[in-house]
Amino acid sequence: MIPESSDLWFLPLGGTGEIGMNLNLYGHDGAWLMVDCGVTFPKPGRVAADGTVHHRGEPPVQMADPAFIADRRDRLAGLIITHAHEDHVGAVPYLWPLLQCPVYASRFTAEILRRKLAEFDLLHRVPIIEVETGQCKQIGPFSVQWLALTHSIPDPNALMIRTPLGNIFHSGDWKLDDQPLVGHGYSKETFTGLSEEGVQAMVCDSTNATVPGHSISEAALHAGLLSAVSGAEGRVVVTCFGSNIARLHTLATIARESGRYMGLLGRSLINMSGAAKKAGLWDTADQLINPAHLGYLPRREVLAVVTGSQGEPRTALRRLAAGNHPDFELEVGDTVIFSARAIPGNEEAIEALIANLNGLGVRVITAEDADLPIHASGHPAQEELALMYQWVRPAVAIPVHGEAEHMEVHADIARAQGVPRAMVGRNGDLFMIRPVPGIRRQIAETGRLGWEKEALVRVE
Fold this sequence. Notes:
Rossmann fold; 7-stranded mixed β-sheet; 12 helices; mRNA degradation ribonuclease J1/J2; exonuclease; hydrolase; nuclease; Metallo-B-lactamas
């Protein structure tokens, strides 16, 4: 299947009809452009009494099967990574040997990617082209411009993909945060300008399409987190997504204000903070101490930020709850703050983890029971989606990055804003944008691959 010069296609192989393992293809004039290449993780299986999660034998890391484009890699012009979250970049080290194309990314995203590739001895094989926000690149028959948006990680980018047949706006993951704290902000004029140029299709994030209102700004969390930390008597442990550098900055400020020393526990947190420093995104005023020193400080002076907000096995918080972390042990009167919400499917594992913490006599504060906001989503709620459609005014809306319910609600929002047509599909469907909009169902075979014993295996 080869797109002709009269064709403009969108073909998702992962991330449409589900949240995770994003892998998108655009086809035009004999070539394909890939946007994002991410992983997902199997939903937790049975949770044992000790909090251990049994995954029913599935590989712990899974990704979209790229067979369709791997079989056509001579026509793959390039791969663009919109931002550095695992569900957008995590599969590159596993799948790049099947693709062997140039990879385009912003500075922070490229830094995270290099660290991943180094673990697979691929660092010097993969051509990485760093791009700046606002920059345009010609990638095969596609002219691509990187546009500034905000999300829960530094340097996220939307894409304007231009072709002679029409333009496509690919949102990536985003929200409208007027005070993102770290990295670039966004400009309304960027998107109203796109509408003046003309946008044939808008391919857009649906994660929070069922959530009314407007997402909370990162800047709005300071008061709630400061209150929770200042009111604690013993050690304070905060668990959050390691990629949220803005949250780490907020917590570092709170550590100074509350007279505590802050240290990071968990590989992903340490890796992300290191990448932020190298990319120039870490405030030099935010000092971290060696986590090995946390156990020697008075309890009232400790603020530890840890991995494990989703109850994942082998993470720092899981080890603290089990009493086997090498740096310190939790005691009666310590406080654990969940500055994150449960990803659907992880609720049982998180509940088991909280039960273990309660059993230790530890006070637990979650985003649901905090008096003030202590977590902000990185995805647009309904008001933000409506605003973006008012600004961009595409001819066609294509909801992605969501389950069926999210995408159907998203389509209704688009129609309510005057979008003439919304096309809702799933992985493997071919969305024909030109010459005539429409969907051909299940054109490409899709599925999952897993990484097991240093090899890719098919996941049934």
